[in-house]
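Per-record layout

source: Candidatus Methylocalor cossyra
name: Serine--glyoxylate aminotransferase
length: 395
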Amino acid sequence: MPGRNHLFVPGPTNIPDAILNAMHVPMEDHRRPDFPELIKPLLEDLKKIFRTEAGQCFIFPATGTAGWEIALTNTLSPGDKVLAYRFGQFSHLWIDLARRIGLEVECVEVPWGQGVPLDRLEQRLEADSAHEIKALLICHNETATGVTSDLAGVRRALDAAKHPALFLVDGVSSVASLDFRLDEWGIDVGLAGSQKGFMLPAGLALLAFSPKALAARHRAKCRRGFLDIQDHIAQNADGYFPYTPSIPLLYGLRKAIDLLLEEGLEQVYARHARLAEGVRRAVAAWGLKLCAQEPKWYSDTVSAILVPEGFDARDVMHCAYHRYHLSLGAGLGELAGKVFRIGHLGDLNELMLASAITGTEMALRDCGIPVTPGSGIAAAAEYWRETAPPLAPRR
Ligand SMILES: *Cc1c(COP(=O)(O)O)cnc(C)c1O
């Protein structure tokens, strides 16, 4: 098939050529004497992405799902009560995993399309004067619904109630794309995966632990073997890993962090916000609605778009893929068939995203969904033009 496939699922994301090239390396000995020259700065610089100075980062050869388990088993004991909110497929799966490893989950159901209800959270924490809740499990950016929750608000609720619960955050589709501040927001564990904002293949679970979360491992009785941070703590100190790391992924991560820091994290966040707003303008121009119910929940990394009653979002995706070589994200769990998703995170610019908007528009029309031809892409393009950075003078 001539031309390239247009990848707009919210992970894996597009990999910049600079990272692809950086990963194209011959294998080497991971116990060589100068290996720490790669690993020690890598672990230090990863802290900058999680925005922590006090904490410690870990790199596991795994995915975001393992990150959930690493966060839980290294800080908690079987039977511990944890409080979690279910508002999409990813928050759902984390809750399911927590139950499977023997935690007692108090699960609060929230309509899919909303995020963490801060008023209810604060009330619940106030009521827990015996401090039975040992941890909060918060999915920062619910990738299934395109909803971002207010982590600073969660921290304020914890502080207002003077509650000592650990604050555990799934940042798989937010870290390195959305504003995320481990130290400032008092997050105890932040976890991410390599294939989203980090612009890498899947294969690394990336975590940051606060000093409080690190200390919790001494009391935490959850069974852990491969996923025990203790083995990493022992080996990372000298710049090694307790088992064979994926060398290409480590070189890729080095390059990804360099690219993110070169652009500047604030700039990375602003780019995501601006690109996302273009997508939202297109959705509005089509006369369609986001799954996210209010602007305060809108995610700058993924938009879940509802198809009108009587249509199946799977037809839109099928058409987009087979006719226009455009991969859109599927509706997950109870949203199957009701939404399709446009991922807008990672290595992206205006015209890359324009291909997704144009292809979506074509597929919508092909499926009989009445959108005005050119309306979505015009709205996005005008927004991006109006908000474009000033031009340097022509030489
Ligand atoms: C993608 C994703 C996960 C799962 O990560 P895997 O790498 O597929 O295990 C977890 N949480 C969120 C919010 C995600 O977007």
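summary: The CA atoms of residues 20 and 363 lie 31 Å apart. The domain at 17-262 is CATH 3.40.640.10 (Aspartate Aminotransferase; domain 2).
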